[in-house]
């Protein structure tokens, strides 16, 4: 039978054990929360390994696929290339990228849209996993576009040729075929950004589209005036530095987002 002294020692150890257990649980929780989320995890093939290419904030990055296909990655973009790419010919994309592929078929999957070239083609996709919208543009060749998820309303693919595009929104289960001016795509490819007396907020939206970056504006923009300038192959920081001198704002970049303050 345990003595009174032994019972006292047992009771004294209990709070210590509880504290140790709580500390371990806390550390595990922190580790799990900090563990980076895999890009498009639900689209990963079982047992497959991927090489990830990442775009740089406010800049474009050019890479070459194993088959020689040139790719332009926009800011905040991730492209996953499987080890068996030569066989599967399938890529996973989170962000915005341009592909100019002589070899076909080439399939690019996002969480909303899937594009497959049926012959040599040049096309661009924009679809971020954290957003509900997506766009796809074809500059040359022919590309089949379909939804990457099961649709209750319309699962029929669209065939796109030069000058065709698709607008999609997963939240409302929408995918519409439209036309666009290919000159806009060619200007994007030349990486020549031009402002002609552009209202400030219009210029901000243009920068968001051009660099695939979220920009938040605080304060009164009325005194900023029109934005003017031409920028060739310029990173976002250089553009911001130049226009802030006339518009009169300060900015900070935090976690792949830009905050502008007047």
Automatic annotation (TrEMBL):
Keyword annotations of the record: Membrane, Transmembrane, Transmembrane helix
The FecR protein domain, residue ranges: 58-144
Entry annotated with the keyword Transmembrane: yes
Domain Protein FecR C-terminal: 192-260
Endpoints of the signal sequence: none
Matches recorded under Gene3D superfamilies: 2.60.120.1440, 3.55.50.30
Pfam families listed in its UniProt record: FecR, FecR_C
Transmembrane portions of the chain: 16-33
Protein's name in the database: DUF4974 domain-containing protein
Annotated organism of origin: Chitinophaga filiformis
